[in-house]
Amino acid sequence: MTSASPQPENLISVLSTQLADAVERTGPAIVAVNASRRCGASGLYWQPGIVVTVDHAIRQEDEIPIVLADGTSVSATLVGRDSSTDLAVLRLTELDLPTPSLSDLSLRVGQLVLVVGRTGEGSLSASMGMIERLGGSWRSWQGGQIASGNCAQTAASSMKVI
Question: CA–CA separation, 80 vs 45, rounded Å?
Answer without folding.
Answer: 15
